Amino acid sequence: MARAALLHLLRHRSVAPTTAPLSAYKCLSRNSKTPSGIKWTSFCRAFSSKAAVNDIIGIDMANTDSGVAVMEGKERLDPFSLVADELSLIANRLRSMVVADVSNLASAAEYFFKIGAEGKRFRPTVLLLMATALNVHIPELPPAGVGDTLPTDLRTSQQRIAEITEMIHVASLLHDDVLDDADKRRGIGSLNAVMGNKLAVLAGDFLLSRACVSLASLKNTEVVTLIATVVENLVTGETMQLTTASKQRFSMDYYMQKTYNKTASLLSNSCKSIAILAGHTAEVAMLAFEYGKNLGLAFQLIDDVLDFTGTSASLGKGSLSDIRHGIITAPILFAMEEFPELHAVLDQGFKNPANVDIALGFLGKSSGIQRTKELAMKHANLAAQVIESLPESDDADVIRSRQALIDLTQRVITRNK
């Protein structure tokens, strides 16, 4: 009921953008070489109408008027299809890597790696595209089932980063679900709901240990340090989320730092690791880092919007879960700037369900959702600009992968699940 009332308010309110529309993504210049079959009209065009964007990309840009770049051609570039074969290879390897001798631990560890429960595999996709975007070519893939017999070459090492990243990500989900007492994840029962909190925590620890073993096999101390920092940041971010001090809970700077630690650190440091393994300069490695950081921040900001506007069916988990757990996110923080009286409601907490309704009422009257989307677009634009700053290349695979990375920045901010 509370969510329905919020959506009704959002649909029927008219709010002018709080900031000027963000500039459109920079796109390939007229002289740039584009992948075969891709056609650009004046390299890109900006749309101020959400309906125009919907017509092109088929994704609802509800309440979004900021400019985005849209690629035209015979078919829209699908970033996931470009690395589909490698994703399948990595999925098979992950399933073999999380095998345990104890049966119930094995069942728990493989819970989100089973076919049909793997999720979007967003992070491995980003990392594989980044590897190609940095001039690393995809070798011919081996026959199915012999992934572990690949020689230790560069591409295989970068695939390992994708595997490590996914294991750390899933481990963090298992631990988060215990802390949040969640009962659903990826459209199925959460592991803690199915097997209990203790086994869920141990399964997360087990995945982290397997990730460490794989990380050590790379024998690159700089990469080991980066990924170890990710784990530290995850713990720091989760601890920051537990804070009860109003000054911190109601601070946008604190929220953004927490969001970096919990979400963007994994993607940024993994992207940087991809560049380091390829032997790139510190400057290029930092560009990879900045792409991952800004994409990760944009991703989480939209997640925070969807927690209010999405459905449990589309999200694969409960909606309104953050606010019900007293977690203050960007939409509410922006709403508080317009309605300071919301502070008192948040200080009281949400044990009383009526306070959830009151908070959602203020959010619906505010521009909190819109401003959060605009902030996500800002970070998406920054990520896209980073890709255009990479060293020039005439290689068609490199150009295609870089465009796919730019396309992902758009998909992140226009998704509805």
TrEMBL record:
One of its GO terms (biological process) is ubiquinone biosynthetic process. The keyword Transmembrane helix does not apply. SUPFAM superfamilies: Terpenoid synthases (SSF48576). Keywords: Isoprene biosynthesis, Magnesium, Metal-binding, Mitochondrion, Transferase. It comes from the Eukaryota. Pfam families: polyprenyl_synt. GO terms for cellular component: mitochondrion; transferase complex. One of its GO terms (molecular function) is metal ion binding. Its cofactor is Mg(2+). InterPro entries: Isoprenoid_synthase_dom_sf (IPR008949), Polyprenyl_synt (IPR000092), Polyprenyl_synt_CS (IPR033749). CDD domains: Trans_IPPS_HT. Signal peptide: none annotated. It is found in: Mitochondrion. Gene3D superfamilies: Farnesyl Diphosphate Synthase. Belongs to the FPP/GGPP synthase family. This is Solanesyl-diphosphate synthase 1, mitochondrial-like isoform X1. It comes from Herrania umbratica. The gene is LOC110412300.
